């Protein structure tokens, strides 16, 4: 027999579902690019929960695109070879030997782990990198970083083909260079360029902090472009948060409707952000002033 408390829980669950209706309607047919950072990919359970959210989003009419990172997995593989990477403003200095490890780890281990997780939840994920279908071509903008690319030319045709077949693209941030070289592209930059070429409704940057913090360590619920520049100049936004906030600004300038930086380790982070009044993390959207 059910207890009164159990029935209350079910009534609350039904209410939550009912209150999601306006959000379900808002995102029906929307394109949502989700960047899953390496630090947000913790346990297999967390990965399954993330994959379940993405499959649910697709089930209710969203075209989800996953772009992933994998910095910690690359570090672990390089450490086995006794190599420690240097980072400049959140980007890995990538020599010829390192780019081989980067591609192997991102397009192989990390990409397929996510593909499998989505497929286990009943979705149809297809793992690709920026090289496939000419999706993302980059150029070296800072030779001191080695084989690190900035996306310059995008071709989203393959992504539209996958959407039309209800498949979920899972994209490793590796691109081709103009001379056939392989380029390591920061996961955030790749996600931003993909979101911009798709004119996505939302870009969710999932990381390991609740959002962008101010000098007092408080999470800011909303950020303007001016505020981001200020916090960066003051040294409050540092390291891996630099490519994220840079990406947010570029994505907005490129036609993405809003970017959210949020904690991907929190259970159901994507659902909370899209389908509840609560929202999550730090929202960056075009200046309306
Ligand atoms: N102002 C800030 N607010 C929040 N996090 C910040 C800030 N400045 C730097 N960070 C750092 O950025 C990190 C997220 O970037 P990164 O480690 O590259 O994550 P990911 O692997 O998810 O891409 C946080 O864990 C935090 O240490
Ligand atoms: C140029 C550059 O820094 N590329 C990143 C690509 C992976 C990534 O972005 O991983 P996270 O999202 O986990 O940080 C790297 O080599 O680590």
From TrEMBL:
Cellular localization per UniProt: Cytoplasm
Top-rank taxon: Bacteria
Annotated keywords: Amino-acid biosynthesis, Arginine biosynthesis, ATP-binding, Cytoplasm, Kinase, Nucleotide-binding, Transferase
Catalytic activity: N-acetyl-L-glutamate + ATP = N-acetyl-L-glutamyl 5-phosphate + ADP
GO cellular component, one term: cytoplasm
Record: residues binding substrate: 70-71, 92, 184
Protein's pathway: Amino-acid biosynthesis; L-arginine biosynthesis; N(2)-acetyl-L-ornithine from L-glutamate: step 2/4
Site annotation Transition state stabilizer: residues: 35, 244
GO molecular function: acetylglutamate kinase activity; ATP binding
E.C. designation(s): 2.7.2.8
Any Gene Ontology biological process: L-arginine biosynthetic process via ornithine
Sequence ranges assigned to domain Aspartate/glutamate/uridylate kinase in this UniProt record: 31-262
PANTHER family named in the record: N-ACETYLGLUTAMATE SYNTHASE (PTHR23342), N-ACETYLGLUTAMATE SYNTHASE, MITOCHONDRIAL (PTHR23342:SF0)
Family from the record: Belongs to the acetylglutamate kinase family. ArgB subfamily.
Described purpose of this protein according to its UniProt entry: Catalyzes the ATP-dependent phosphorylation of N-acetyl-L-glutamate.
Protein name: Acetylglutamate kinase
Organism lineage string: Bacteria, Pseudomonadati, Pseudomonadota, Alphaproteobacteria, Rhodobacterales
């Amino acid at each position: 027999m059910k207890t009164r408390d159990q029935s209350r829980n079910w009534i609350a669950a039904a209410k939550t579902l009912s209150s999601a209706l306006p959000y379900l309607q808002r995102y029906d047919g929307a394109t949502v690019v989700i960047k899953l950072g390496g630090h947000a990919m913790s346990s297999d359970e967390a990965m399954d929960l993330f994959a379940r959210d993405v499959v649910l989003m697709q089930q209710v009419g969203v075209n989800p695109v996953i772009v992933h990172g994998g910095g910690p997995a690359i570090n672990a593989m390089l450490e086995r070879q006794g190599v420690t990477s240097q980072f400049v403003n959140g980007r890995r200095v990538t020599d010829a030997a390192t780019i081989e490890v980067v591609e192997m780890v991102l397009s192989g281990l990390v990409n397929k782990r996510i593909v499998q997780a989505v497929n286990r939840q009943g979705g149809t994920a297809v793992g690709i990198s920026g090289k496939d279908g000419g999706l993302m071509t980059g150029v070296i903008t800072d030779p001191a970083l080695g084989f690190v690319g900035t996306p310059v030319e995008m071709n989203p045709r393959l992504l539209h083909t996958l959407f039309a077949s209800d498949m979920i693209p899972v994209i490793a941030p590796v691109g081709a260079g103009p001379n056939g070289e392989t380029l390591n592209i920061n996961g955030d930059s790749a996600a931003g360029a993909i979101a911009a070429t798709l004119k996505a409704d939302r870009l969710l940057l999932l990381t390991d902090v609740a959002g962008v913090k101010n000098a007092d360590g408080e999470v800011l619920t909303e950020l303007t472009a001016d505020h981001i520049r200020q916090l960066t100049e003051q040294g409050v936004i540092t390291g891996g948060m630099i490519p994220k906030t840079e990406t947010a600004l570029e994505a907005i300038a490129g036609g993405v409707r809003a970017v959210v930086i949020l904690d991907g380790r929190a259970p159901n982070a994507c659902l909370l952000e899209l389908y509840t009044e609560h929202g999550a993390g730090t929202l960056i959207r075009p200046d309306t002033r």
